[in-house]
Fold these 2 entries.
Entry 1:
Amino acid sequence: EKGGFKHFMAKEIAEQPVVMADALRHYTGSSAAPALNLPEGLDFTGIDRVVMVACGTASYATHVAKYWFEQIAGLPAEIDVASEFRYREPVLSEKSMAIFVSQSGETADTLAALRYVKSKVAKVVSVVNVPTSSIARESDLALPILAGTEIGVASTKAFTCQLTVLALMALKAAADRGRLSPADLSARLESLRAMPGLLNAALASSDSIAQIANELARASDILFLGRGPMYPMALEGALKLKEISYIHAEGYASGELKHGPIALIDEKVPVIVMAPMDALFDKTVSNMQEVMARHGKVLLLSDAKGLAEAGEGTWAQLALPAVEPVWAPILYAVPAQLLAYHTAIAKGTDVDQPRNLAKSVTVE
Ligand code: F6R
């Protein structure tokens, strides 16, 4: 049932181009001209804020989506982890839309947060992989991510499908708010449709990632850096790595490095810099150079142009396809997952059943 792969995690990483294309087909049709086809009830007219709540990897998907709702739709977006959200007395209004993201749809903290907001907001929407789950049933509207059953404890294909559905929701919000002309919407949808092909290309770097991972496996601390929507990807890269390889890892917003974490840098600490060619590339590179000046071992993830511009003096490099910057987080999920996977393999840990973790956390 692992389809020729050694682990469910490897199979699920490899499935991403196909399941993402399935989700896109479901929500944008299969004709050459894509069109948004989201459930009727998903209407952002009159909504003045989205509040997104989730746990773990699903919460990093909402963190990426916060950038999308704000940048594409001009809609204020708030995020929180479920265990904090429901105890902090969040200010909610009848003009807010609450969005709960959960692969299993059974995460106790997320479900409790959903019950807490009900009747306090305009609409409760869930983004789930299991359409029959408690979270789906208790929300006003449930959008399936269509990733198929995810068995590996570390979430991979569910994450990219969560991002896909959240991207489409941000586009719908932009259209509803008059922020996106039909032509611009089509262009955005077409660039999303190109993503499964790019994920495929990223999967082809699995062998080079395995080589790098042999070295990473010797580290006791690893940092991930990114800016903008690559910041939550740095957090996700670090979470994936620590949960299956048991190596201590942290993700930071690149610009925060100088406010403390730079004290950790020495020649033993690998620093993984996620730097697609976006508007913040130069700033990310200058943060990377601060790391190199302190002898940190930098692994630079970028496209060929970015590596040519900034690769000098780095310890290692990984070339990814050039990508429409707004969707770069979807692409960079793949190397983040493969780095964690191969590092865990090099360490000999149980990647599908990491210690102390359960696939679905149904207790608070
Ligand atoms: C990380 C991971 C967890 C889950 C989290 C939420 O790889 O799998 O962090 O993302 O427990 O689970 P769901 O999405 O089922 O609510």
Note: The first strand starts at residue 49 and ends at 54.
Entry 2:
Amino acid sequence: MPAEQSSSPALENLSEETRTFPPSAEFAAAAVAGADVYERAAADRLGFWAEQARTLDWETPFTTVLDDSAAPRYGWFTDGRLNAAHNAVDRHVAAGHGDRVAILWEGEDGESRRVTYAELAQEVARAANALTALGVGTGDRVAIYLPMVPEAVVALLACARIGAPHSVVFGGFSAEALHSRILDAEATLVITADGGYRRGAASPLKPAVDDALAKGGTAVEHVLVVRRTGGEVEWTQGRDVWWHDVVPQASPEHEPVWVEAEHPLFILYTSGTTGKPKGIFHTTGGYLTQTSFTHRAVFDLQPETDVYWCTADIGWITGHSYVVYGPLLNGATQVIYEGTPDTPHRGRWWEIVQKYGVTILYTAPTAIRTCMKWGEDLPAGFDLSTLRVLGSVGEPINPEAWMWYRRVIGGDRTPIVDTWWQTETGAIMISPLPGVTAAKPGSAQVPLPGIVAEVLDDAGAPVDHGQGGYLAITEPWPAMLRGIWGDEQRFADTYWSRFPGTYFAGDGAKRDADGDIWLLGRVDDVMNVSGHRLSTTEIESALVSHPWVAEAAVVGAADETTGQAVVAFVILRGGEEVVDRPEGEDADERVVATLRAHVGTTIGPIAKPRSILVVAELPKTRSGKIMRRLLRDVAENRDVGDVTTLADSGVMGLIQQGMAKPS
Ligand code: WTA
């Protein structure tokens, strides 16, 4: 059984969970996915995906569906050529939908903008011309570090239009994290903004780009800067260029660069089990096929009437697949909101749902649990009656949060889709289908049509119903990652070696008595905090990079709101080389504050530990391995489990005494 199971919120109530919510007859009759979709996909899996791929425009139609000759580096639709931006935008204009609103943008400060498909097409073409004029060629990498403004969507699509893979770095990452990602991808251009609005204030972004580039070693020639906040920015002549000086002036005519289906579309860094983030890379044809199919089927999208809203930031895969590519490929009208849910008040999200008549809402369990804490009076103050499908992503959703989401936000009538997938899978893999599947609170339930997933035991055999094990994807899928940028070996080792030939997801899972799949959290050293992936090792190396720290161990402890929280244990250095360390009564508190801030600058504020405990020793096996399981017990206030394999069994007593003190 995976070790992490005990800390998973999905486990509460698991044994008693028997409620199901079958779709209403009315919903079922109109379901976009169609009642026979599973049978069709099962009868001819590759034919099913080919049919989905043909819903896109191909400049050169494909004849090969799956190329498995270089597995696990699979290829899909390999002899076809297409362009992602053409499919996301121009195609809809050509079909007569140019006046349809693509983006209903809501700034945190109350500013708003509407962008139609025709306007978006022009803007993307102009930006593509501007990128070319700045020297970006097909195949060159572009780093994007932007807030949630319409230009972010334009920037991604402009890159795609010229076949320049984008590498989006979440705006909450530090200059150091940005630097390492720019270096790893050898990006030649960075697109950023002066800043964005968060929590009621302008939050600068450009300084982090300046700092990142000042660290040196990059291939960056230009920085293209969007003006959003109007704040002061430092300017490097010759390198920095204002977006408004080059994009509006560029021609709105642009011939897209038709690329092979396997041409890289983007790189997106995510945390793995080592300190170094992995550059997950995705290609074009298969990724677009699966993001568009899943966006249609899983959200029951009716592009003419729906108003869709996914609250994810473009810095994460959910923003790539379900803010940028999926919705636009399907010609949807969507809301994009710049800021935080509680600015200027805690009803902001519900006010937005009411203002735009949102019909489909896709968010994360951590946000739902936060709203639960704020109380149901808040959403009750707004008209949410337009909502008809609710989605959840990023971490297990516990049945209580699921029920609250359905009752309070969904008026007890909306289907909920709990969607399991990963940066690596590119698109949704396991989820109920609204109007087709009878939903079960807390379970992601069934692999989508065309996807084959299993729960395997240690030996790689499928588990029986009622049993737990490891989630694996046993057949290749169109949107699968094609590798880790620049590190083929790590790709093979991380995903394809645990069960040879089968994709190992790194998640624990269980099949219930009906065979439905329940996700139980990570089984490796990856934490999931508010739906964001963080690596224990990465935070440990950030801590030991501080001169006061000799050794550090980090665990993800269960947290009611954020799913998991980062808890760190550190041993401080002794001896003379330690300078400036606080002394006296509140020394530990001051050390802890400094170390939290240090993690914030090394990785980003999201990685700051909830608590840091200064300890004299860490629990280790006789071979010197830190026993994180025991630290997790401590962090979650549980009785400490079996300590017989510890080199020094007294260590845990000391740590527990320390934990009793506030840190
Ligand atoms: C977790 C986010 C349970 C899981 C799209 C996975 C989930 C990791 C769910 C990927 C879900 C995502 N139920 N767990 N519905 N969705 N996860 O790469 O542990 O940021 O491996 O992709 O999030 O996180 P990532």
Note: The chain has a mean pLDDT of 93.
